Amino acid sequence: MISSILLQPFAAIATASAGATALILSVASISNICETRAIVQQHRQGRRLDSWPQSSPPAPPKKSWKSTDEAVAGLSGMNRKELVELFLRCDPPSDARELAFEDDGDEREEGGGGCWVYDGYLLDNGPILTRVTNFITNRLFGRGEKWLGKSYLKPTTSSFDRGGVGRNRFSLSRRAAATVASNDKVNESLDRTFDYYIGTSVLPSASTSKSLFHCYAPHCAEWSPMSLIWRGMVDELRAVNLEGSDGGNARNREKVIFLGMGYFSWSGGVFNMAPFCLVPRPRLCASERLKEE
Fold this sequence. Notes:
By secondary structure, this protein is an alpha+beta fold. The protein has helices spanning 2-44, 68-76, 80-88, 129-141, 174-178, 227-230, 286-292, and strands at residues 115-122, 147-152, 164-171, 188-200, 210-215, 233-241, 256-264, 274-283. Helix 1 (2-44) packs across helix 3 (80-88).
């Protein structure tokens, strides 16, 4: 009896704190949704924003950066408003050959081969939701493991008619890494499978309203409590061509990075999107690791 009386003030404080946190997150989400809608409306009317800092390109052209490192630095220095505006100026890849695949060893002679993966970088999502995005991506989405990026499996055709399958890359914990064979240099795990394809977006772009989509629903269990959350997860991506790129074909895929917007269909949808970018990186194939050994 006495203990329950003593615990009542702490329970009231905890309830109040939870309510305040929910209110803050709701306000931040609504703010992002309103901001995105305003930017989209301006873009549809053909108006450009004049809020670019001096360190950024005046009206972010597609070929403003010369290297992937320079592009990542530039994107990391942009706020959410600028990232959304840049996203609306970009277009998706025209076909599957513009993606870098995990099993591209057969194209080595053409300058686009080797095993490729994409390193992922979370970008600004506002003063409050940036931390929330980091927590969801690196703790919940990765089941406690840090998110590293994505990996695409090669589709059966060069078009996006049927699309393909991809997986997210996560770092291995020390315990998990210790179970990997000593002669294997893999230090990451692949999880959270998605389907990828070109689809129509509600967001306009320079010449089309299409994006490269990642859809997780087909690979989520129907009755798992957590899967109800991830079933509504969607990514939209568009290409940012670096200086010297000829449009991102298979020979110059290292010259194309992807600006992505991740969102949940049940939490404001695309208008409450969280920015990230994907950078193609060559990685040793299993056959090449065997040659080294």
